[in-house]
Fold:
Amino acid sequence: MAGTQQDNACAATEQALVSERPGRTLIVGPAITLAVMLWGVSARPYWGDEADTVSAVSRSVPQLIRLLGHVDAVHGLYYLLLWPVVRVAGTSEFATRLPSAVAMAAAAAGVTVIARRLVSRRAGLCAGLMFAVLPTVSLQGHDARPYAMVTAAAVLASYLLVRSAQDPRPRWFAAYGLSVALLGCTQLFGLLLVPAHAVTLIGLSRRRRAERNGQRALACRWLVTITAAGVAVAPVAILCWAQRGAISWIPKPGWHDLDDVANLMAAGSVASVVMIGLLSVLGGTCGDSLMMTWPPTPARGAARPAAADRSLTWLAAPWLVLPPLLLLAVSEIKPVYNGRYVTYCLPAVALLAGTGLAALRWPMRAAAVALVVALAAPTQLGLRVPGNGMRAAAQFLSAHERPGDAIIYPEPSIPPWDLAYPEGFAHLRDISLRQTAAASGRLYASTVPLPVLERRERGVRRIWAVEMRPDDNPATYLAPGFRLAHQWKLDGYLKVWLYTVAHDQK
Structure:
């Protein structure tokens, strides 16, 4: 009895503090998420797709529009939003990844607001904290690609859906429609959230069973809104369909991809998946009914708790389950599944697990938070280990190049490494260059035919070659008379070769 009274006193004190500072629950989650995102944001070097981002945003707006007519229309809005950032802050890892970090913090704010509105302030606080802890949030928040912005757009659309269901006035549906159009333009696969929203709307309207006319009106307004959003996104969808060959590399999914989905949503380890899964089940089944009292210890003769409000479950469960399953199902016909494409389902995990966390008593809640953080810590730390990659190659070339040295790329096109790391690559004369990426309207520059390359090599004494693929041999791109002077393996498949004319070798 004494323990129960102490727990109730702690809960009452905590609730009083939350009530006195209503803004704290809205600030803590986003602030911590932003801090986690900024922690080590530039530790890892650019990878291939991020170099493509740098290539896209390093050109003029007309050149960027021309590029989108050929490739990457699916990322067009993201490139246009990042373009002014690069003009002001440059193309460093910090500058290009900062918008993704801020987008994840905005998503955390939306998660907090949704849980606060549908469950309680405590649930909002816990959901925001759970979102900050998830390693995949950090992974995409440290990526100069659009998936963090897609996540923020999905959270905005989901919040506006809730507001539209609760207050079906035209202004809320108009805002919801704009958010769905934004989601689709930021990433076309984000529209897989729409079927999940349809299920959510059905669940949220069940409580209005007595108002059948209101249900029909709500459904009609939603359908009209979604249709209008679809019309707005249609030009992007048509262009993306024409460019579908860009994802032809994606393999057909197998059973291991279901494991990939679980790791994407919880990450870290099997223990992390189990822990977050248990909290999510608790949050989805308990809702408000067990808030501050789980495990339940009802006093003799006390009334049973009221049935839980399932609004959050109706929102989060379809959001979490349907987009990945639909993408996997479509991939049985045309492979399109990639874990990055369903990053925007992470907020649903935070909503469910955060609500489950809030349903625990204070000592158990503190222990659960500590355990989740401990399980996520190894993965979080691993994401911030400085890597090598293109950055290492640039640093190596900068330290070893000499005036008059040239560089070639042993592949049919030239990757934009000179734009991502100009301090190492841009100082070398690229004798294989035919047309720059910006001039050709492509992400990669084009190369000259081999006979032209051999003629250009005759006036050069030292030629560098850099390649990440294990099966390329730069010697086939060299004129007679060049011999391999040195070869270095920097990281994984990343190799650097130095060729010199035969009589210059020592």
Remarks:
- The first strand starts at residue 406 and ends at 408.
- Strands lie at 406-408, 413-414, 429-430, 433-435, 445-447, 462-467, 482-491, 494-501.
- Residues 454 and 479 are 5 Å apart (CA to CA).
- Residues 1-20, 290-308 have pLDDT under 50 and may be disordered.
